[in-house]
Please model this.
Amino acid sequence: MAYPIFTCAYEKDHNPPLDAEAEEWFQQARVLEKVRGVKDWVTIVSFYDKAIAKDHWKAMHNMAALYRTGWPGQPGVEQNTGKMLDLYERMVKLKVPLGYYDWAVVADHGRGIFKSDRMASSYMFQAAQLGSPMAQVQLGQYFAFALPRDKQDDDMAERYYRCAGAQDNPDATAKTASFYDTAKKNKPRALFYYQRAASLGSSIGLSYLTGVFSSQPEPIDNFGYQPDPKLHEFYSELREQLNANPNLRFPNLMKDHPLPP
Model:
């Protein structure tokens, strides 16, 4: 598919506002969902459903994910493709960037609907236009890797990756780092994005930062920096903290610990 001209948009500028009461219900559902062991799915679903009734699109996304796979329990959450699609469609009607991205993924994999490359491409582009960082990464990957070699466009790919990497999405930022590492062979720029991803809670970012400064870095971790035992230990400790608590973020990481020149 030939995509129209590039536009950099940020998801935060297009996400619909969330009702305050619905947000409280959503957060209560998230707390219960993170409990280890047996989960109280009846209460979790109840909180999500109440939030969804007030157009809370994050609750729609999470509930749709549960319907997509189902979740065992006594009782659990039954897999229900129809309800999943209804929630994704509702997100699209609300013009939620993530909703367009979710629908693109569904169309690409043929989950509950006929697999359609054209529909997937159309929704993915609309998601990117509305600022979805993961959609922007997908378009970046399309231009950098998916096209035949003689038609690949690294400049266009870079525009999408940079736009995605400027947002606060750890997965998209880590993929932006990977693009600079593999496609552009720009190790310093790649490590900049890996550090930014780490600050947003990316285990991938912290893994690279830990390896880069080790005394004997693996080839994949060799970014041309000198071994630094203190930095290696510092990032190893952050990695352990994140493993223990995946919700951790390190907002001052880049400011307090700038990368060596």
